[in-house]
Amino acid sequence: MSERELQAIEALIQSHGAPALVAGTFLEGPIVATLGGVAVHQGLLPPLLAFAAIFCGAFIYDQLVFAMARNRFATPLSERIRATPGFDRATALVAQRPIGFVLVYRLLPGMCTVGAAAVAAAGVPHARFVLLNALAVGLFTAVFALFGFFFGNAAEAAFGDLGRWEHWAMITLGIVAVILAAGVLLRRWWRRA
Questions:
Q1: How far apart are CA 12 and CA 150, in angstroms?
Q2: Do the beta carbons of residue 147 and residue 178 sit within 8 Å?
Q3: What is the pLDDT of residues 79-120, one digit of tens each?
Q4: What CA–CA distance (Å, rounded) separates 66 from 116?
Q5: Would you tell me the crossing angle of helices 30-41 and 3-16 to the nearest 10 degrees?
Q6: Is residue 49 classed exposed, middle or buried when 0-12, 13-18 and 19+ CB atoms within 10 A define those classes?
Q7: pTM for this entry
Q8: Chain-wide mean pLDDT for the chain?
Q9: How many Å apart are CA 81 and CA 101, to the nearest integer?
C-alpha cells in the first residue's frame, strides 16, 4: 500500500470515523484494522467504537463470501476463488480440522477469501460457521487493532518529532514487517501441523 493510499485511509477515518473503518476492513482487512488501532491511539475514535467497526467489516465480509460460496458457487468470482492455488489445500484442511481452520484462517495472509469459501465448500453448517467466525473475527480484531494501538504508542515515543509522512512511513514499515514475519511463522507452523 502506498503512502498516498495510507493518507487517504487516514483522511477517511478522520472524516467518517467508524463507517470508514467498517468499509476499509471489509475491503482491505488487516491493514485497515491496524490503522484503526493507530486511530484509537491518536484519539480519533473511541476504542470500543473502532473495535466494533473493525469487527463488523471483517465479519460481514466473511459471511458474504461464505454465502456466495455456499449458494452460488458457479459465479465468475467464486470460480476465481476456486482456482486460487491454496483453495484445494484449504478445503482439505477444513475437512481435517474444521474448528481450528475457521479460528485461524483470518490471521493467515491471503486466506480471508479462500478460507471462507473453502469452509462453505467443505459443507460446514452455516450456524457453526457464524459462531466460530465471530470468535475468529474477534481474535483478528484484537490482534491487529491492538497491534496498531500499541505500535502507535511505541512509534510516537520513538519518532514523535518526525513530520507527518515520516511517522506514517515508520508505522507502515513496522506493520508490514510484523505481518510478513507472522505470515512466515504461521505458514511454517501450518505446514508442520
A1: 21
A2: yes
A3: 777 777 778 888 888 888 888 889 888 888 778 778 888 898
A4: 5
A5: 60
A6: middle
A7: 0.72
A8: 79
A9: 17
